[in-house]
Amino acid sequence: MTLKIRIDDSAPPYEQVRAQISEQARAGTLPVGYRLPTVRGLADSLGLAANTVAKAYRALESDGVIETRGRNGTVVAAAGSAAERGAAVAAQEYAERVRRLGLGSEAALDAVRDALRAAYGEE
């Protein structure tokens, strides 16, 4: 596993850790079941505070990308299905909210497209 933290990046270090591990898991660079370093071990190797790495691990676990198995450590989970379920739940919540706000489906889709372009750095 290779992670690079850029101090001059606009994203906070925990988000850089989260995004890089998530991308490597999605790409298969980190296969399902791959054992991640301990929070303290990864923090030491990256020159970060342990709380920063712990925050990234909590976010990854919440997203279903990793799972903690107690004494057996933290491993890459079968992220595809968990990520898809999470996306479906978020989409349903968004659809219900924009309907309550009175937006039509085209305005709601435009808002999603804009948000996705911003999130993925697309123009």
What's the arrangement of secondary structure elements?
Elements: H1 13-27, H2 39-46, H3 50-62, E1 66-68, E2 74-76, H4 79-101, H5 105-120
Antiparallel strand pairs: 1-2
Helix pairs in contact: 1-3, 2-3
Description:
With 123 residues, this protein is mainly alpha-helical. It has helices at 13-27, 39-46, 50-62, 79-101, 105-120, and strands spanning 66-68, 74-76. It has a two-stranded antiparallel sheet. Strand 1 and strand 2 form a beta hairpin. The protein is globular. The model has no long low-confidence stretch (mean pLDDT 90).
Quick recap:
Helix content is 61%, strand content 5%. It has helices spanning 13-27, 39-46, 50-62, 79-101, 105-120; strands at 66-68, 74-76.
Order of helices and strands: HHHEEHH
Q: Main sheet, how many strands, which sense, barrel?
A: 2 strands, antiparallel
Note the beta-strand portion.
under 5%
What's the total helix number? 5
Low-confidence runs of at least 5 consecutive residues: none
Strand order of the largest sheet: 1-2
What does the radius of gyration come to? Answer: 17 Å
Query: Roughly how many Å apart are the termini?
Result: 30 Å
Helix fraction bin: 55-70%
Q: What is the strand tally?
A: 2
Structural class: mainly alpha
Oligomer: single chain
The outline comes out as globular
Overall average pLDDT: 90
